Every structure is written in structure tokens, then in C-alpha cells.
Amino acid sequence: GINAEYGVCSKEEKKATLGGAFDEAGFNPLINNMISTMIENKRSNHISGVVGAFNTIMAAQRGEVPCKVTSAQPLSDDHLESLRGALGKFLKENEKLLLDTATDESLIGGMVVEIGDKRVDMSTATKIKKLKSALSLPL
């Protein structure tokens, strides 16, 4: 059972629980074996990282390019459509844009675009910060 004092499960319980879920979901037995090995070697805290890396590799294999756009206010459908068009020009023929949007009022205005390993900050907050920094320099 669960150790009430620490709130942790034994290795065997973790393997049985995850293994049963993976079998029920129809996962490849190699996945179950890898997860069991990670649990056995006290690496279960790395499972989500492994899954994330695998998802990234598979998305790249499918030609999916993740893109996150954070704006001060939610973008209208028209803005989203023109943004998709503009970002699409940077993609190769066989690539597909996976656009994820978020809002952050602290940006004040503008947006921050993260596509692949590139980040473009066009937010008003950053422009103000750069201006303040430039004004504080001696002439």
C-alpha cells in the first residue's frame, strides 16, 4: 500500500499501476519496459521529460512546427488568420504550423512570438524597458 507517512508508492506498485494502464491503452510493450526500467532505477521523476522529448521528436518527424504567441489581449480571428499567414511564410513546404496562443496583460501591448528555438519580443513592456535603459546611460 501507500506509505502514509511519506505518501509514496513502492516500485512494484508504480510498475503495476502504470503497466496496467499502458496495457489497457494498447501501448507497445517496449514503452512499458522502458518505464519499468526507469522506475526500477529510481528515475521515475524523469518520465515526463522523456515523454516530452519523444513528443517533440515525433512532432518534428510529422513536420509539425510548434509556435507560441503571447499577446497582451486575446487575438481576434482576423489577427489570428493574418498571423498564421505571416508565420506560414517561414515554414518549409512539408511543415505544418501548430499555433498556441496565450495572453499576458503585463506585456501592455504587442506580442511575443516563439517558434522553434527562436523568440521575437515585440511587446510594449520590453520596448519601455529598453527605452528606460537607454535613457539611464550617460551621454
Short synopsis of the structure:
With 139 residues, the chain is an alpha+beta fold. Helices cover 48% and strands 18% of the residues. Strand 1, helix 4 (77-88) and strand 2 form a beta-alpha-beta unit.
Notes on the structure:
Helix 1 runs antiparallel to helix 2. It is built from five helices and four strands; from the N terminus they run H-H-H-E-H-E-E-E-H. By secondary structure, the chain is α+β, with helices and mostly antiparallel strands. It has a four-stranded mixed beta sheet. The radius of gyration is 22 Å and the shape is elongated. It has helices spanning 11-25, 29-40, 47-61, 77-88, 124-136; strands at 64-71, 96-103, 111-115, 118-121. The mean pLDDT is 91.
Uncertain segments are none
Largest sheet: 4 strands, mixed
How many strand units? 4
- Give, in spatial order, the strands making up the sheet with the most strands: 2-1-3-4
Query: Mean pLDDT, as a whole number?
Result: 91
CA radius of gyration is 22 Å
Structural class, from secondary structure content?
alpha+beta
Order of helices and strands: HHHEHEEEH
Termini separation comes to 70 Å
- Strand residue percentage: 15-25%
